[in-house]
Fold these 2 entries.
Entry 1:
Amino acid sequence: MDKIQETLSFSSAACDLGILAIVESEVGLCAVALGDDAEELELDCRMLFPKAGLAVGSGGRGSQLGAVARQVSKPSLSYAGALDIRGTRFQQEVWRALLEISPGETKTYGELARDLGRPFGARAVAGACAANRLAVVIPCHRVIGAEGNLRGFRWGVDRKRELLEREARGGASRRRVLTGPLTAGN
């Protein structure tokens, strides 16, 4: 067994889309998940960070659970807390582009790939969206299939539809701009 390299805080609570779970590091929020079972979400988060110890219910750095819950309720809000984004350079490039999609708007995987200068990279963009650990905060739900259909949301198409409908009703908000160093790798 690998030695634990860091301790992360796990918190969960009921929200109007089921159960909301977050994982926080010393740097900031590193995972947001939605589901129907808190224990299942905890297990999923443990698998996302296999070299970390997960302190359940510890609240971390003053837990951001409330702030994330507000964004889930009104996804047109922009999360202002610190983020600990872990992914490859390409994934981070895609995630930055996701933040440029205004609330209430959508893009197809192909459109996003073209925006990134990769006109044939729709599948790679879809893979980066699937690897996004920060549901709603990094709005992968704003990316749709080529025919305008809802596809590929780890937390369920019904939740994706509801988030998009909430954004359409909620009006525009400021987009978040990622600055500073991001964590490379997993």
Entry 2:
Amino acid sequence: MTTRINTLVKASLVNTSRLLILSSLLFGGAAAQASHSHAQAQSTLVQVVREATKQFIDVSAAVAASYGPFLGCVSGPDHGAMGIHYLNGALVGDGQIDASHPEALIYEPEPNGELRLVGVEYIVIASQWLANHSAPPVLEGQSFQFVDSPNRYGVPAIFELHVWAWRENPNGAFVDWNNHVSCEAQ
């Protein structure tokens, strides 16, 4: 009886192994393809942002285009930072999202006193967006985060999306806090 049970267990293990191999061949390719498509969408948005904002590498160009500093350098609650947000009030208040016109440009203070462009933030006031849409905004496949009010920034409820187009973020191109950005030089 023990020999027969051992034989059945071995046969079951062999069949399970075959099933796992077959599944990985069938579905692994689909997962890799989906992962590639997601990475491609991320890369597309990052490239769109880089193209749209290369003119603002020098912060004086941002100021000339009606962007101004807001709140100083924003540090993370337990790690990383965002940097100094330069907001364009007209874009924040227009209720629209346009990949080529981010509402905020994000700069990191450098030890030499200069500011380095590291990313952007797309921002739309939640009540304005929801007056014309039934769901939160999505830009090139990236869903916006909801920030309720009251909040630490003293702004009304918003939807926002960060894109770290000019400074790599080890946690992803669309994560709010970037461990490679610091406010220490401010």
